């Protein structure tokens, strides 16, 4: 860990990537991912409030074209919020895994998920190989 990160008591992406394998999911690394997940959760909850306010503020127009455009915007916004709701659930599951001590470990194989993958997708619950197998199975069997 570099001196600045050590003094601040916080990990950075660079220090996480440079850490030795025996430091995997150390207290500092778990704190880093907890903070990242909590920040993402906060941003999503803020977006939900913004959407609710926006939907309530919308006026219903007497012009059918305006009404259709507004309804289409609302449909798209609600679709985005549904995706965010699912992401919020994954964030909360990841925070639970941190609390239970199994964050960062593949739910299927028990192998490390890897720092690089967790930095790209902090909610990952499967290592890359297990995720690829699952996606191939879904494509093959349609489910």
Please outline the helices and strands:
Layout (H helix, E strand, L loop, with lengths): L2 H6 L4 H6 L8 H31 L6 H37 L14 H6 L7 H14 L2
Brief account:
This protein has 143 residues and is mainly alpha-helical. It contains six helices and no strands. 12% of the residues are buried.
Describe this structure as you would to a colleague.
α3 (27-57) runs antiparallel to α4. It is built from six helices and no strands. Mean pLDDT is 85; it is low at 1-8. It has helices spanning 3-8, 13-18, 27-57, 64-100, 115-120, 128-141. The protein is an all-alpha fold. Helices cover 70% and strands 0% of the residues. The chain is elongated. The protein has a single domain (3-141), classed as Four Helix Bundle (Hemerythrin (Met), subunit A), CATH 1.20.120.
List the keywords.
single chain, about 0% strand, Four Helix Bundle (Hemerythrin (Met), subunit A), about 140 residues, 6 helices, mainly alpha, disordered N terminus
């Amino acid at each position: 860990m570099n001196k600045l990160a050590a003094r601040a008591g916080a990990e950075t992406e660079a220090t996480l990537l440079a850490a030795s394998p025996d430091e995997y999911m150390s207290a500092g690394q778990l704190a880093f991912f907890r903070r990242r997940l909590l920040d993402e959760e906060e941003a999503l909850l803020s977006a939900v409030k913004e959407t609710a306010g926006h939907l309530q503020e919308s006026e219903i127009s007497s012009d059918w074209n305006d009404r259709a455009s507004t309804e289409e915007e609302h449909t798209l916004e609600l679709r985005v919020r549904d995706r965010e709701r699912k992401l919020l659930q994954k964030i909360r599951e990841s925070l639970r895994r941190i609390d239970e001590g199994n964050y960062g470990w593949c739910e299927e194989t028990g192998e490390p998920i890897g720092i690089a993958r967790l930095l790209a997708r902090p909610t990952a619950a499967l290592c890359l190989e297990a995720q690829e197998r699952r996606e191939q199975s879904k494509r093959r069997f349609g489910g």
